[in-house]
Amino acid sequence: MEALATFGQLLVSGILIGLVFALVAVGLTLIFGVMNIVNFAHGEFLMLAMYATFGLSLVGLNPIFALPFTCIALFVFGLIVYRLVIRRLLTGPIEATMFGTFGMLVLLQGAAQALFSSDFLSVTNRPFQGTIRLGEINIPEAALAEGAGALVLTGALFWFIERTETGRAMRALAEDRVAATLMGIDVQRMNALAFGLGSACVGAAGALLMLSYPVFPTVGSTFALTAFVVVALGGFGSVTGALVAALIIGVVEVLSGFYLSPEVKMIPVYLSYLIVVLVRPAGLLGRR
Q1: What does the alpha-carbon distance between residue 254 and residue 205 come to, in Å, rounded to a whole number?
Q2: Are 195 and 31 in contact, with CB atoms under 8 Å apart?
Q3: What is the span of the domain harbouring residue 211?
Q4: Do residues 126 and 224 make contact, with C-beta atoms less than 8 angstroms apart?
Q5: Which of 109, 125, 248, 269 sits between 20 and 30 A of 234, alpha carbons compared?
Q6: CB of 18 within 8 A of CB of 246?
């Protein structure tokens, strides 16, 4: 019974952290699906959101109340980055966007290092610091709030893409850019909106993560690496695939960290990814 309770505890923990991975990854997969580029600075956008949440905590807003402001700030930041940088890079070869976004990664990390040093910063007015007990399973309230918030926001993004006119225009652009242009869809507007929404997703994820994580200049790299694996495993451009893959990776990571070792917990994650892509190179729910 004890072993079963331990497994249940690990399973719940893996699902909750997987939901946060999903929120980070759906922004990345949305940008790729619409624009066919990979934003290597996606993790640094997450880092900026966490610093923004920390800053708002200094004026009395806890991470939950700071979340909408962080989302709006990252959405606007994403629009500015697209207008000033990404739009120009798209006129060049695919390598231009790769090196451009990687350069942005280095720039944002260096700026954070210069402004905030390498110190770990945590908000002091965190809500949800208790624990919920369900039988033999203990669920930290912060982890539950992070997972539930990430699930709601991921579902909202899925609804927007599937049910709204703008979302259908984005999907049309992802399917066939030439045909979408001929149908009168404003490509630049859709690109900017996709980049802004992808940035807003990590804005929300950053605010939620501050419920239990500290922020430091390289914090985004940890989550971004997992997000890239989630997007590739679920299928580039598939929001549903990103959610499914994130849950799988969250559970595998937590189980391997407990039953193997925290130092090697990512090895089974990468092995799982390799096995899936060898069988299905497009990912679990990606288009062939």
Answers
A1: 19
A2: yes
A3: 8-107+140-220
A4: no
A5: 109
A6: yes
Q: What is the distance between the alpha carbons of residues 273 and 288, in angstroms, rounded to a whole number?
A: 17
In a domain, 96, yes or no: yes
- Sequence-distant (6+) residues with CB within 8 A of 230 are 21, 22, 24, 25, 242, 245, 246, 249
How many other CB atoms are there within 10 angstroms of residue 6's CB atom?
A: 14
pLDDT tens digits, residue range 118-162? 889 999 888 888 888 887 888 889 999 999 999 999 999 999 998
Does residue 134 sit within a domain? no
Q: Any bridge partners for residue 139, and if so which?
A: 132
pTM of the predicted model as reported, rounded to 2 decimal places: 0.91
Instruction: Provide the β-strand partners of residue 121.
Output: 215
Cα separations in angstroms, 29 against 213, 218, 238, 266: 24, 22, 7, 21
As given in the structure block, the two tokens for residue 234 are: 């679920």
Residue 134 DSSP one-character state: E
Q: How many domains does the chain have?
A: 1
How many degrees, rounded to 5, is the angle at CA 164 between CA 186 and CA 101? 55
Burial level of 85, CB count in 10 A (0-12/13-18/19+)? Answer: middle
Closest by CA to 143, choosing from 254, 41, 257, 57, is 254
